[in-house]
Amino acid sequence: MPTLNIIEIMKIIPHRYPMLLVDRVLEIEDKRIVCIKNVTANEQFFQGHFPGAPVMPGVLIVEAMAQCGAILVLRSIPDRAEKLFLFGGVDKARFRRPVVPGDQLRMEIEILARRSSSVKIRGVATVNGEVVAEAEMLSVMAPRQ
What we know:
Blueprint: H1 6-12, E1 24-28, E2 32-38, H2 58-74, E3 83-95, E4 104-114, E5 118-127, E6 130-143
Antiparallel strand pairs: 1-2, 2-4, 3-6, 4-5, 5-6
């Protein structure tokens, strides 16, 4: 199964620091991808969330899963530099336990439905084999301005 490093990921999706939330792709198939995010104490969001008790915001875990889905879909689109994937909706989001510095977030994403300009995915994020978050997300492809 192919893997992608951070340089290869940045060739597929337009996100950059501090919003690039995928460090490596471990597995990638037609309708499934497995990615990791190494959560470090140096993350910008930990400065205010929360001082003395750092917790990765749940919305950023969902964003990281969405970026994995974007990698999965955009890798096969030839004119991807002219496209953006935007959130269309988030359903069934559940957060099971906090994600803290030192954790390695493992995200498994599968495509539930795909149309020409949208995709519905399901993501499950784990740390050490324990589910920390899950959600269904709808992304809509739009032209990049």
